[in-house]
Structure formats: structure tokens, C-alpha cells
Amino acid sequence: MTFTETNIKGVWIIEPKKFGDHRGYFVETYNKDVFERGIGRSVDFVQDNESYSTHGVLRGLHFQKGRYSQAKLVRVSQGRVVDVAVDLRESSPTYGRHVAVELDSESGRMLFVPRGFAHGFVVTGDRAQFQYKVDNIYAPQSEMTLKFDDPHLDIDWRLDRSELILSAKDEKGISFDEVEPFIAGDIEG
What we know:
This protein is 8% helix and 42% strand. The protein is mostly beta strands. The strands form two sheets. Strands 1, 2, 5, 6, 7, 8, 9, 10 and 11 form a nine-stranded antiparallel β-sheet that branches.
């Protein structure tokens, strides 16, 4: 696997090696030792999740507050998405900035998003099967949604607004100005 830290400290693009022949391919998508050596820290994933969405579906920008904050290792096993992570760490020099990375099943590229970030994606292909590991349980009472089109964030979702399909919850996200930043104790993991 190849590990490349993005311009936001702690967010990593991970590219696994794919071995293929006339039968298809094999790829190791996660190996705890390799992963932790690659990002330089220990992460204890406790839950795997999967979603399936069609073209234009935008999910996010989601995060959990306080002790329920989650780190995520995300990948696409079918299709293509633009994946976005927004830095909400109060003490970070990149607070309020984001990373947007194309993830697709062909390349197998993954993104590691540490605790203290809002996260979301939009399906830019026909469909996408999206899989992610998290290091903390889902806590609905702690879940928040940051407005996907907040002007402060200036995220290029790479689709026209008329193509986007959102849940009612995601349509009603809070503005960046309403977000209470994560303090160090919120993001330890």
C-alpha cells in the first residue's frame, strides 16, 4: 500500500496494490499492521458500514460530537464518488478547510479521516457501493450535519446543484458558523 498525507495533517490517501490476471483481481483492502505503520498511529476500528447510492446522491457532511467522534477509513467497492473531509479541529492550522478526493472501485483508492472532521460524499458515477470502517460506535444523539453547500467551505462537489439528491436531514445541516469546534479532548482516540 502507498500512503500519502494530504494537505490537511492526519488525512491520508491510501492506494492498495491490485494483483490481476485473466480471472479478475485480488486486493488487500485492510491490514492493521500495514495501515498503522502507514499513518503512524494506532486506530481500533469497531464497526464496518456500507451504503449503496445512485448518481447525484450526496450524503453528508456528517460528524459526531464529543466522546462519540469517529475516525473513518472509507473506500468505494463499486462506482465512483467525490469524498470530502472538513477539518473541525479547533487547534488545527487548517480549521475550516477541506480535502476532496475522487474514490473509485477501479483504483481502489481509500481515504483515512481522523476524529474531528465532518465527512460526506457525492456519487459522480451511475451508482456507488461505499464502505467504511469507524473507530467508535454510532451515537444518534451525538450526530450532527454540516451544511454541504455552506459558502465558507466552498466545496466543489463536481455536479450541478440540480443533480444532487439529499435526505431531509442533510438538506437542513447547520452552517459552519454554528459548529462548535472539536477541542483536543473530543478527538483523542
